[in-house]
Structures are given as C-alpha cells and as structure tokens.
Amino acid sequence: MQWHLANILTAGRLVMVPVFFASFVAGFYPVSFIAFTAASFTDLIDGAIARFLKQHSQLGAFLDPLADKLLMLTAFSCLVYKGVLPGWFLTLVILRDVMIMGGIGALKILKFEVKYEPFRSSKIATLLQIILGILALGFMWSPAFQFGVYPLVDFVEGTMYVTASLIVITALQYIQKGITILQTRYAVSQDRNKTI
C-alpha cells in the first residue's frame, strides 16, 4: 500500500467526515463549517496533485470517490435534517450517484471496457455542490449574514436550483454515454456475425 501526498489528502478528507458530523450534531456549526470547507479543499486539489506529481494509484482511485460521496451525503443529510435543504435535493444527488455507479458496474459485469471519465459538466456540478454546502453551513453558522442587501439564504436557494439542474443534465449525459457504449458493442457484434 503506497501512501503519498495525494492519498494522504484524500484520507484526511475521510477523517474530516466524522469530525464534521460530530460537530454538526453537537451544534458547533463554526467547527462543522471549517471541517467541511477544509475537506472540500482537499477534494479540489488532491486530483491535481496526483496528476502533477504522477502519483496515481489504485488506493487513490478507490478512496477519492468514496471520500467525496461520504462527505457530500453526510453534509447534505445533516442540512436536510435541519430543514436548510429540501429532501428532494438529497434524493436527486443519491439517485444520480447510484445510477452512475450502477451503470458502470453493470457494464463491467457484461465485460465492457469502461474507463470512467467524468464530463466537464459533472466536475462543475461537484464544484457547485461544494459551494452549496459551504453557503448552507455558513447560514447555519450565521443566519443573519448578508451579501450586501441579499440574505445568505437567498444564495443558498439559488445555488441549490442551479446545482440540481446541472445534476439532472449530467445524469442524462451519462445515460446517453451508456446507450452509446451499448449501441457500439451491438453494432460490432452484428458486423462480426455478418462476416461468419
């Protein structure tokens, strides 16, 4: 098992999840805000570090998405419980992730060569989820905070709807990609049958 900087940052993100959860449940919202923000920052830089230092590994490929999903699902579940975010948003996030992982798993079972490469829109959706989490936790910390004349809760709501829209768009893109892979394999098998 090889530990290097990118993997250490990812593992640190995993460690921050229980720190975030415990502080949130205890009502220490400044601590939960800082924990989420710090963990999210590692999410933004660990992939870049792995590419720059050429530190790709199977451990990192396993830990990175696991840490991402745990952090986001924990944060959004807490925010839904407190009524800051609606339940349908959390459901949308879960359904999209289940669909992607389920689709990849099904293609691998069918012996399809699948290389998971997220769309640019998917990366933007992840960034927006991070921003939404930071804004919503900032609201929990200081509900009266305003950007100019606009209360923070308005930015939370606006970011949530933009993020939800992009989540739906990326889900449709992955569905289209899966259908294309299946159609390509079917066309190849038909050509093979014609040559026999």
How would you describe the overall organization of this protein?
Helix content is 81%, strand content 2%. By secondary structure, it is an all-alpha fold. The protein has a single domain, classed as Up-down Bundle (Four Helix Bundle (Hemerythrin (Met), subunit A)). Strand 1 and strand 2 (150-151) form a beta hairpin. Helix 1 (5-25) packs parallel to helix 3 (58-81) and helix 2 (29-52) runs antiparallel to helix 3 (58-81). The chain starts with a helix and ends with a helix.
- What is the domain total for the residues? 1
The first-level CATH class is given as Mainly Alpha
Q: Helix count?
A: 6
Topology as H/E string?
HHHHHEEH
Number of strands: 2
Radius of gyration: 20 Å
Strand order of the largest sheet: 1-2
State the share of residues found in helices, binned by percent: over 70%
Question: What class do helices, strands and sheet pairing give?
Answer: mainly alpha
Secondary structure layout:
Blueprint: H1 5-25, H2 29-52, H3 58-81, H4 87-109, H5 120-141, E1 146-147, E2 150-151, H6 152-195
Antiparallel strand pairs: 1-2
List keywords for this structure.
mainly alpha
Produce a short descriptive summary.
By secondary structure, the chain is mostly helical. 81% of the residues lie in helices and 2% in strands. A two-stranded antiparallel sheet has the order 1-2.
